[in-house]
Amino acid sequence: MIRQCNKHGKAFTCNNYLHRNNKINNEEESSQYTQCDKAFEHQSYLQIQDRINTGEKTFEYIQCGKVFANQSCLQLHERTYTGVKPYKCNQCDKGFGHHSSLQQHKRSHTGEKPYKCNQCDKAFTQQSKLRVHEKLHTGEKPFKCNQCDKAFARHDNLQYHKRTHTGEKPYKCNQCDKAFSQKSNLRVHERTHSAEKPYKCTQCGKGFAIYNYLKLHKRTHTGEKPYKCNQCDKAFTQQSNLRVHERTHTGEKPYECNQCGKTFAYYHNLQTHERRHTGEKPYKCNQCDKAFTQQGNLRMHERIHTGEKPYKCNHCEKAFAYHSNLQYHERRHSGEKPYECNQCGKTFTQQSGLRIHERIHTGEKPYKCNQCDKAFARKSPMAICSTLFVPVLSAQRFDKQAVGCSCVPHFMCQQLPLHMGRDESVSC
């Protein structure tokens, strides 16, 4: 016999399912208790308040202080602490504490999304997620923070937000000392210990610890860039990347160094900058004794040892270890000189070339010889000047008569022509 819901017109083959549906309908409406002025989002919360007011027995879990209207709900809650997962998926090895959670999980295998939004084309595996989604259309945010003016569409989001005020991080990793404000963040973190990557890309087989990372990765195959800048034509695969990009238009630099006051648009740039103050170089080459402030610089350095040149010119057969070097090289083919001097109009293929050139106009000579009082606009002439004054290790290696200069002990023999102003070579 088919039974029908009076409110939504849904049909059910089992009377129990109809009762459950009616209960959900009742919970949709905020419940007001008649003996006091408290209001509740769910009927179950009203039942607990009813028991408290009448003195009827409630069931409290001593580890967290939560109260339940009946013992079966208490037992279900206990599983979040004991880790008991009696309900197993027959398609994968996952287990669940609640039968309803198993039912929801099975939809990840079947792709079933029975709960459809009647205002857009989105569908959901759970009715609760549909309800939350519907608030996007209505703009409803019934859960308000009593410490600031923020409001939320979901009660659990309010709970997470409150922890930003209290600093509470109740979910602790049992393998390290990290703690989290949300259980989902703890689960994701635990995969760094287990190396578990349950979310696989169907196109290339790459695995991910976090489902959102898989979604982002899929866009590398589809080329989808849904987040568009409204000030230029750039688009991004991630909303966070769009936010960071928008700072190029606004000039916002929210990250400030507390040692020198310099500000940065990106947090990782601040971290790199702070290492200049501390001298920290955490990225060490395992083939030589060099160390770097950035992991990217270490990777580029390692190509010196491996000889890897992944960046190939499509105009000739040359290849380069660094992408920037390929870009500079390609300008030789194209003749492009994008860096222009604003005082004389001279153009350059590299920004560094423009900076050196600008010193002609400013007279700046930042490179000073530590052996004499000369200063230079470029580093290489300064280096040559400094080497002219390098003391020899043994004056016996030189013959003053042969080279014909009374001050020869102060010069390496191959540098003597530079000192003497001659081009001919000198034999020691």
Automatic annotation (TrEMBL):
Belongs to the krueppel C2H2-type zinc-finger protein family. GO terms for biological process: positive regulation of DNA-templated transcription; regulation of transcription by RNA polymerase II. InterPro entries: Ikaros_C2H2-ZF (IPR050589), Znf_C2H2_sf (IPR036236), Znf_C2H2_type (IPR013087). One of its GO terms (cellular component) is nucleus. Gene3D superfamilies: Classic Zinc Finger. Pfam families: zf-C2H2, zf-H2C2_2. One of its GO terms (molecular function) is zinc ion binding. This is Zinc finger protein OZF-like isoform X2. It is found in: Nucleus. Keywords: DNA-binding, Metal-binding, Nucleus, Repeat, Transcription, Transcription regulation, Zinc, Zinc-finger. Its main location: nucleus. It comes from the Eukaryota. PROSITE patterns: ZINC_FINGER_C2H2_1, ZINC_FINGER_C2H2_2. It comes from Cricetulus griseus.
